[in-house]
Specification:
mainly alpha
Length: 111
């Protein structure tokens, strides 16, 4: 209710969209969750958490290519690269899987 109230007061509050989207995703309301993640990205296109959460949602929905696209917008987030590696492996694009796994490792241990 608090996130919805925040959006009533400020419809372009990207963090409220992300947080409400996450709650909706966890409750299984995928369509509404997607709408909030998309709204957050429309307001703040470089919102890494919105892009990552959208990727997890799309993956949950079985929309693998869309999930790959969403994770790609979270390129500074190590877990996005890990998930990209898994998904590319799943669809048989092994070189892309390896590339993202290497990026993941470099982000979690830059030494």
């Amino acid at each position: 209710a608090a996130y919805q109230r925040a959006l009533d007061l400020e419809p372009d509050h990207s963090d409220a969209h992300v947080n409400l989207g996450r709650l909706l995703q966890e409750s299984g309301d995928y369509e509404r969750a997607e709408a909030h993640y998309v709204a957050a990205l429309k307001v703040e296109p470089d919102n890494v958490l919105a892009a990552f959460n959208l990727g997890t949602l799309l993956e949950d929905m079985g929309r693998i290519q869309d999930a790959i696209s969403a994770y790609g917008k979270a390129s500074s987030f190590a877990d996005a690269h890990y998930n990209l590696s898994r998904l590319y492996e799943l669809i048989g694009e092994h070189s892309e899987a390896l590339r993202h796994l290497k990026t993941y490792r470099s982000l979690i241990d830059p030494h």
